[in-house]
């Protein structure tokens, strides 16, 4: 029943928030008026938070489903586009065939009529004329046009045509060094700028059987060109650009990471460029596949050639014939190897990083301890390009520009795959940079409360929890890797601690908080820092080194405050006994002195509510012991001399005042009272200070002992005018 009511309430809340007339201000105002108290508001806030999380999960699920559908749709569109292109190509061929039928019939009919009219003429001259015309058909480009190489030429004719044509292009003689290369197609084009579609230059394209050469037109030298770029066909993609007048008859060439747009003279030439490029790429791919199959095909045992017999030489039967060692072939005709580059592209697009790395590991294991013939090198070049793309995607996943939600565990996927790819150092660097940005963001988003101690509790919880989670995740991700990564983590932790101390000092020390508040804040920070010892990380010395300057400043500032207050009370000293008026006030003073460590304070109390001590001495005792207790909370070895010198300066102010008053006072009764206060200082207060300091620090202080021993001068010769100092 309760569950049903809860579901119905959540449904009503969702409908109300989704309504078109919803106004947040009026909703909050109405809710605050109807709620009974803070508990109702907290429950309503939890319901809204749960609804927000549910909505976020649904949105994430829908985005993922839409993303998969988008990939599948894009794949289907690609298949459909390929089929439509093939269909268009078939229709174009059929049209060309139909148009060529009348053209072939007319010359045949004319030839038959001429033969009948001539009656007895020889037919050899006509054949020679046709041969002459065929010989005159050239491959040189006409201005503004395109030409296609004849398939009837032999290898020497193709090479001669390529040589003759490329002599018109400056700076491309190195192309002739490739055996078996010949010209397939060429023509004039106009290049346009990809972003703003501005005309750049006139170029001429030379399509060879394995590459595309682009040459720029030289206006001052008609018919001559200058070499511009050379693109291998296996790394070239051709894209048809839709006509958008006045921009028409264009196509785009994609060569990672750049692209170029060209315009043909008319639609027919553009269609020819697209067709011949696809045909040449397909032929090249088929040729490479056959070469790989032939290289991977097993061969029979090598035949040992018989050695020609020499009747004048004796046969050496003891020396065995050494068979020729055949080079080991690598079988690359397996289906998964042929589809590996495309599978890697799909895995990267679908963010299946684990699948991509698994494919790479499978390939490396297969090619391990195998030779590297040209087909293997070509395959590795293609795979290396995908590895570079995968590495860039994984590095982007760890960049601080990405969302920092999810904590350190959200980076585990990208870090683990980078480590598997052999990028351990880069993974460590990016992981620590990501966590530094997360810590900085968490500290910056922390709300500054009115109470300093409350803010410090939140700051320490956020920072040290993040540091602890980062350390544990680092140990999980980089276990078994190079030890240099752990050194990098220690350096990072020191830097992160500096970020924490900056925020800590700005709130505690720059705002001039009291020494007690500062001591409590430092104590909280130390306690949180000690929790890191559970994972073997001790940063206490770092926080001490970073805070020592601020703590020294705080001790010095509070010391000056105590000295000024003591001097002010000394200036108004009348050397009279304290009258606390009520037994409650006297009992409270006894408890305060007991807290300060003065156990024998009862002997200084008189009848009723009187205290046989001066108000100045009592106030000095409470203030000095309070300073010592708070300073011991801040203590670490680097502050030993600072704390000791501050205590000595504070005590000297009171001691010098008592000594001066004892020497200058003429009234015997007051002089006896001053001597009683001096005895309290030297015999009660100073031993308590010395003992408490030794307990807090762990070793005695010689300066305090010397200061207490100086009291003998007063007891031996109280009338002396010699100062204690």
UniProtKB/TrEMBL annotation:
Pfam families referenced in this protein's UniProt entry, alphabetically: Exo84_C, VPS51_Exo84_N
Any one cellular-component term (Gene Ontology): exocyst
Alphabetically ordered keywords of this record: Cell projection, Cytoplasm, Exocytosis, Protein transport, Transport
GO biological process: exocytosis; Golgi to plasma membrane transport; protein transport
Biased composition (Acidic residues): 312-325
Segments of this protein annotated with the region Disordered: 116-159, 285-325
Every PH domain range: 182-282
Compartments in which it is found: Cell projection, Growth cone; Cytoplasm, Perinuclear region
InterPro entries assigned: Cullin_repeat-like_dom_sf (IPR016159), Exo84 (IPR033961), Exo84_C (IPR032403), Exo84_C_1 (IPR042561), Exo84_C_2 (IPR042560), PH-like_dom_sf (IPR011993), PH_domain (IPR001849)
Main subcellular location: other
PANTHER family, per database record: EXOCYST COMPLEX COMPONENT 8 (PTHR21426:SF12)
Family from the record: Belongs to the EXO84 family.
Oligomeric and partner information: The exocyst complex is composed of EXOC1, EXOC2, EXOC3, EXOC4, EXOC5, EXOC6, EXOC7 and EXOC8. Interacts (via PH domain) with GTP-bound RALA and RALB. Interacts with SH3BP1; required for the localization of both SH3BP1 and the exocyst to the leading edge of migrating cells.
Function, as annotated: Component of the exocyst complex involved in the docking of exocytic vesicles with fusion sites on the plasma membrane.
Protein name in the entry: Exocyst complex component 8
Gene responsible for this protein: LOC112807912
């Amino acid at each position: 029943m309760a569950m049903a009511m809860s579901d119905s309430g959540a449904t009503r809340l969702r409908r109300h928030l989704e309504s078109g007339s919803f106004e947040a201000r009026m909703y909050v105002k109405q809710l605050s008026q109807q709620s009974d108290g803070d508990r109702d508001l907290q429950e309503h806030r939890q319901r809204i938070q749960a609804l927000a999380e549910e909505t976020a999960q649904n949105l994430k699920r829908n985005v993922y489903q839409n993303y998969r559908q988008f990939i599948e749709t894009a794949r289907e569109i690609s298949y459909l586009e390929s089929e439509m292109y093939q269909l268009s190509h078939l229709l174009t061929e059929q049209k060309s065939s139909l148009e060529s039928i009348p053209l072939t019939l007319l010359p045949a009919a004319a030839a038959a009529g001429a033969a009948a009219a001539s009656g007895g003429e020889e037919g050899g001259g006509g054949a020679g004329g046709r041969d002459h015309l065929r010989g005159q058909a050239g491959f040189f480009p006409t201005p503004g046009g395109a030409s296609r190489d004849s398939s009837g030429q032999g290898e020497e004719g193709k090479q001669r045509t390529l040589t003759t044509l490329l002599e018109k292009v400056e700076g491309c003689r190195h192309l002739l060094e490739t055996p078996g290369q010949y010209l397939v197609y060429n023509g004039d084009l106009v290049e346009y700028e990809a972003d703003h579609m501005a005309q750049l230059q006139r170029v001429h394209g030379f399509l060879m059987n394995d590459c595309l050469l682009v040459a720029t037109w030289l206006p001052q030298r008609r018919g001559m060109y200058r070499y511009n770029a050379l693109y291998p066909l296996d790394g070239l993609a051709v894209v048809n650009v839709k006509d958008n007048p006045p921009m028409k008859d264009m196509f785009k060439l994609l060569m990672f990471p750049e692209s170029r747009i060209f315009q043909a003279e008319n639609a027919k030439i553009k269609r020819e460029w697209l067709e011949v490029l696809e045909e040449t790429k397909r032929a090249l791919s088929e040729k490479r596949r056959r070469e790989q199959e032939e290289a991977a095909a097993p061969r029979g045992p090598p035949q040992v050639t018989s050695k020609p017999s020499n009747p004048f030489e004796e046969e050496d039967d003891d020396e065995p014939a050494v068979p020729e060692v055949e080079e080991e072939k690598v079988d690359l005709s397996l289906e998964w190897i042929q589809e590996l580059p495309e599978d890697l592209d799909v895995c990267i697009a679908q963010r299946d990083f684990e699948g991509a790395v698994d494919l790479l590991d499978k390939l490396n294991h297969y090619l391990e301890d195998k030779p590297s013939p040209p087909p293997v090198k070509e395959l590795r070049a293609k795979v290396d390009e995908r590895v570079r793309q995968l590495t860039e995607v994984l590095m982007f996943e760890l960049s601080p520009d990405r969302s920092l939600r999810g904590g350190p565990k959200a980076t585990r996927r990208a870090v683990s795959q980078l480590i598997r790819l052999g990028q351990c150092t880069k993974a460590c660097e990016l992981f620590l940079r990501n966590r530094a940005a997360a810590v900085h963001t968490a500290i910056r988003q922390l709300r500054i409360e009115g109470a300093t101690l409350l803010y410090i509790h939140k700051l320490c919880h956020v920072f040290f929890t993040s540091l602890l989670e980062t350390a544990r995740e680092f140990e999980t991700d980089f276990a078994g890797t190079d030890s240099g990564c752990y050194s990098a983590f220690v350096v990072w932790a020191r830097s992160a601690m500096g970020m924490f101390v900056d925020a800590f000092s700005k709130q505690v020390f720059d705002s001039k908080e009291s020494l007690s508040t500062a001591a409590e804040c430092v104590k909280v920070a130390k306690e949180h820092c000690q929790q890191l010892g559970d994972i073997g990380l001790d940063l206490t010395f770092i926080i001490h080194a970073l805070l020592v300057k601020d703590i020294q400043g705080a001790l010095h500032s509070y010391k000056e405050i105590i000295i000024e207050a003591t001097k002010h009370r000394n200036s108004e000293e009348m050397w009279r006994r304290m009258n606390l008026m009520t037994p409650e006030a006297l009992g409270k003073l006894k408890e305060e002195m007991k807290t300060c460590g003065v156990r024998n304070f009862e002997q200084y109390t008189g009848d009723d509510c009187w205290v046989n001590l001066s108000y100045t001495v009592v106030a000095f005792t409470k203030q000095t012991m309070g300073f010592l207790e708070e300073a011991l909370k801040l203590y670490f070895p680097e502050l030993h001399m600072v704390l000791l010198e501050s205590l000595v300066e504070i005590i000297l102010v009171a001691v010098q005042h008592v000594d001066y008053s004892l020497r200058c006072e003429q009234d015997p009764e007051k002089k006896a009272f001053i001597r009683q206060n001096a005895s309290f200082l030297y015999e009660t207060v100073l031993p308590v200070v010395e003992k408490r300091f030794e307990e807090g620090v762990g070793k005695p202080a010689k300066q305090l002992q010397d200061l207490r021993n100086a009291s003998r001068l007063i007891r031996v010769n109280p009338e002396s005018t010699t100062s204690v100092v």
